Amino acid sequence: MWDEYRWIVVVGSFLAVFTAYGIGANDVANSFGSSVGSKALTIKQAVLIAAVFEFLGAFLLGSHVTGTVRKSIAKIEDFYDIPELYMYGMLCVIAATGLWLLLATYFELPVSTTHSAVGGVVGFALTARGGDSVVWAASADEFPYFKGVGAIVFSWAFSPVCSGGVAAVFFWLARFFVLKHENSYERSFWAFPVMVFVGVFVNAFFIINKGAKSIKAIKNMTTDTAAWISVVVAVGAFIFAVILAKFYLKKIVERDLQRKEEAEAARIAKEKEPKTEEPEAAPLSKKESFFKSLSRGLNEDVHGVIEEQEDVNAVHEFTVQYDHKTEESFKYLQVFTAICDSFAHGANDVANSIGPFAGIYLVYKIERLESKTGAIEDDMYWILALGGIGIVLGLSTYGYIIIRAIGVKMTKITPSRGFAIELGSAFIVALGSRYGIPLSTTHCQVGATIGVGLLEGVKGVNWMILPKIIFGWVITLIVAGFTTSLFFAQGAFAPSIYGVRDVNHYRNYISSYAIDFGTRAETLVTTTDANNCGATSTQDADGNTTWSFTNAACQSIYDQAVEIVRLGNLYIPSKQTQRLSPDDPARLLCRINNLDEAITARYASAKMGESTYGTVAAEHTVFDTDSNAAFCTAAGL
User: Fold this and answer.
1) Torsion of the alpha carbons at 29, 32, 36 and 42, rounded to the nearest 10
2) pLDDT tens digits for range 238-247
3) N or C, which terminus of the chain has less Cβ within 10 Å?
């Protein structure tokens, strides 16, 4: 464990929950916008589904998209030599992503967690290593046959158009075979098993084909085999859904319809009663007030905006109304498609959100950076639990803003429309996860919503809010990248206690090494070999001794030794009076090497390691080969 960087793991865990909170408030909220907007689910029920199926999606299928963001956006090999900075960079990515998601939620902008994380990674890589460390565009062996930032930009158009088309097809089929018929209510119960078959097949295929590759029995399975197994599983689900629809689901729908009629009758009766003044409620305690504020998101009336805003009301009034009993039966189909959507979202976006923290933890654990860094390992699934906690809190307390924007303001969503939106979005997101394309579930959800709305005509979509949403998509990469770059630069390029400590330790070592070697070299020519060197000394008025030598080689050794001792004293951090350049340590070592060679040349006839002369050189050899010595000459050191 890398103990001095434990704080990054601790802070990162809190920021991971913070970012997951933003995901719940923005990204997960837009996934459930159609379900809550159609009144198939309440926000409380959406929170429960998210808590289970977002986790399962990330657990079973999410590691592949995490790998895409990790490997296909930045060149991880460029950071092998600076794993500490990689940890800090991922910390900045998490912080920037969480901040942007919450800010976007405040301004009612449904944005992408995936693209926020991608923008953060780009900002970090640019600041740390420059533009060459970012994969702007590169070829790939499978669809879409290129990767990098260019693939992200491509997905801005690809994902909403494709999901819109798929969702429109699903809704057109529902209208053609069910909604436009007089017996649409009866037909809806036969549509339920068919849609269950499609949803189960899509999710089962991608779980087997990609998500479960760690299981030995599945690892070498072909795509055809995976497809056949998925068909068998889907057929089983179809048979179960037929039984459920025939013997159970219809009774539940009719019971719900009766309850709604009774509730509506009670409401009308209450309105006819004479109004009486109700006693003023007692003020809430601080504790009660806190919990009321905390639960506001669960109890928010997101449909109130229909009466409050004219443009929203116009869209809802224009939309065709189908049989209310049929729509009620589609609620349970939409609950199923909401589960599929939540699963796909967990596979794509939740895994991306915890990917940077997984990278932090793995580097901390093994003290190095590897190509697999950022992938969820067997002992790291607790990280997914952190994400689950944050998502539930974010969706329950702050998710109503995006739910209202996607599920109510953009178009009128009924259960029959909502199931098509969710199934179309889930299909494209799962497809992207299969091929490692970091698609945005937000883009898919918005595209699917528009696709279904356009089947009613251009007036079926609230075009007033669309430019705002697209603007949010475009600036996500920019804002997340710039914020991450700012955070990273502030920390990485600021003075560091660890950096100063290590530099001072290195300088102290070099200083003592140089002073010791230079002093012993001085002693060699002024004392041990003074007679052969022709050494003479003079003292000035201050008592300073100056040596001169009749032997030129000894004079050269002495002059070099004095200079090395002087530089060695200059390198002592506590005595340093001027800033050293980065190549000064190498320059000093090269001076020591030159002096070492001079001593060796002068006393070559002595037995190295045994004589006094040889001991000085043998104990302080810096470079052992001529090629290393040549480095100093070539570098001008």
Assistant:
1) -80
2) 999 999 888 8
3) N
